[in-house]
Design a protein that fits this description.
Elements lengths: L3 H7 L4 E3 L6 H5 L12 E4 L3 H13 L4 E4 L14 E4 L6 E4 L4 E5 L4 H9 L3 E2 L10 H6 L7 H4 L6 E7 L5 E5 L4 H10 L5 E8 L1 E2 L3 E3 L2 E3 L4 H13 L7 E8 L6 E9 L3 H7 L1 H4 L5 E2 L2 E3 L1 H4 L12 E9 L5 H17 L5 E8 L22 E9 L5 H19 L27 H5 L3 H11 L20
Parallel strand pairs: 2-4, 3-4
Antiparallel strand pairs: 1-2, 5-6, 6-10, 7-11, 8-9, 8-10, 12-15, 12-17, 13-15, 13-16, 14-15, 14-19, 18-20, 19-20
């Protein structure tokens, strides 16, 4: 019998919620209702010390647990039938203009960080959907609209406060526990609960961005422009996302493009002249700040439904025939299952030279390659469609990798080769070697040091090889 009063007594400022308590049901909510799970207890701490209490209690009582930041994962990683350590009461943000840094709690959403920085004309590399939690994005690597200019979120991380498996509260940085700091940058969820991050910030003016929509017949021209954009080899941080999907009401097939240009509107329109000349249905571009850019994809990422995301990657150039087949797969699936409201593919053409300046073994993140992320997104309400959606997603991601993607093999002739998988978006379990490549051995050493009992083992584990790579 678990001693819940003892836990309540130890969490003096936070909350310990049982199924009959006010706030319990709200704390179960996730971005994907398919990832929700009833928990024995939910702890909503207010400090690293209370997180430590929760971790110690769960470990001592052999209670499985999960950590919830923004609750955006569609894998179910932030839910548990045992304990959930919900960081939603820890959302403090502090901006230091003199040091050009921002410190923020592990329960923050990117909207918290964006708004705090925007007030000072500053920005950092964050998520492309602003209601994503900071922790999940950062600890898995972290791509964003500013990656092309400043690298990954982990490349801008200066330090972190982390609660490890024995309840210790440690600082991780280049100077303090550098092996732990190496690990959290790419495999953080496997080593502890990060309660505080400190990252570099940059002066950031307005950019030209927004959404353009096109008829499906424009696909060859859009692919041609994407290839041209890539071939420019620019290093100024300009970006492009192309989307295959439907109009918001789900009634019509549509293609979209979201360009981003660091500079005035007249320059942007010259730079993206060939994109604009394709001929769009709608044009909602304007000058805006980065905080607004990080809201552009929010309409297709609403709460209140079952969600699934998947990941692939594309090597350039894109091939029109292959890309058309991928688009047809998406549109045909929607025709077959019209109750699936959201069914789309995003290709994030964020130039990679900056993230590739960091060596493959400098952090646990092992995916620094010259290719772009391709992200699938589904949204539906009927649980009876779960299997059909997951099957379609699996086939679609395999199709993307087969026709235009990069694949890593254990027989890779160089330890500098990327794995070709962005784990933050993976909908299916990835075995350790495929997830972390040649960084796995060092990662396992750190795991044995800080989490010898494999307490943090949800999702893409590192403790054991789960099969051999052919």
């Amino acid at each position: 019998m678990l001693d819940w009063p003892k836990l309540r007594g130890a969490i003096t400022k936070g909350e310990v919620l049982m199924p009959w308590d006010d706030g319990y049901a709200a704390s179960l909510k996730r971005w994907s209702s398919a990832a929700e799970m009833k928990s024995a207890v939910i702890v909503r701490p207010t400090s690293a010390e209370e997180v430590s209490v929760a971790v110690k209690y769960a470990v001592a009582n052999k209670l499985p647990f999960a950590v919830c930041g923004g609750g955006h994962s569609t894998s179910g990683m932030s839910s548990s039938e045992g304990m959930v350590i919900h960081l939603g009461n820890m959302r403090k943000v502090e901006v230091d203009q003199a040091k050009m840094t921002v410190s923020f709690d592990g329960g923050c959403l990117w909207s918290d960080v964006d708004s705090a920085l925007d007030a000072y004309g500053l920005a950092t590399v964050g998520g492309t959907v602003n209601h994503t939690g900071v922790g999940g994005l950062i600890l898995g690597g972290g791509h964003g609209w500013l990656t092309a200019k400043y690298g990954l979120t982990i490349d801008n991380l200066i330090s972190a406060q982390i609660v490890t498996a024995d309840g210790s509260i440690l600082e991780a940085s280049e100077l303090h526990n550098p092996d732990l700091f190496w690990t959290i940058r790419g495999a953080g969820a496997q080593i502890g609960v990060v309660t505080r991050f400190t990252s570099r910030v940059y002066k950031q003016g307005k950019v030209w961005s927004g959404t353009l929509t096109f008829l499906p017949i424009k696909l060859p021209e859009l692919v041609a422009f994407a290839n041209e954009f890539h071939n420019r080899g620019q290093r100024e941080g300009h970006c492009l996302t192309i989307v295959v999907g439907y109009t918001p009401d789900g009634a019509s097939r549509v293609l979209s493009a979201i360009p981003l240009y660091h500079g005035p509107e007249w320059e942007a329109k010259q730079y993206f002249a060939n994109l604009l000349s394709i001929g769009c249905i709608t044009n909602y571009t304007s000058m805006m700040n980065i905080a607004q850019v990080n809201q552009l994809q929010n309409p297709m990422c609403e709460y209140g439904m079952r969600r699934l995301q998947g990941s692939g990657n594309v090597m350039m150039p894109l091939h029109t025939t292959a890309f058309q087949q991928i688009a047809d797969t998406i549109w045909s699936f929607h025709n077959m299952y019209p109750d699936v409201k959201f069914c789309s593919l995003l290709v994030e053409i964020f130039p990679t030279h900056k993230l590739r300046e960091v060596s493959q073994d400098a952090t646990a993140y092992a995916n620094r390659g010259e290719f772009y992320d391709a992200v699938t997104t589904f949204g539906w309400t009927n649980p009876a469609l779960d299997s059909a959606v997951r099957l379609c997603n699996s086939k679609l991601c395999a199709q993307i990798r087969r026709d235009n993607g990069y694949e890593w093999s254990r027989r890779a002739d160089s330890r500098d080769k990327p794995v070709g998988r962005y784990l933050n978006m993976e909908a299916e379990l990835v075995i350790p070697r495929q997830a972390y490549g040649w960084n796995l051995e060092k990662l396992q050493m750190t795991k044995r040091k800080f989490d010898p009992e494999n307490i943090f083992r949800k999702w893409h584990g590192v403790a054991e090889e789960m099969g051999e790579i052919e």
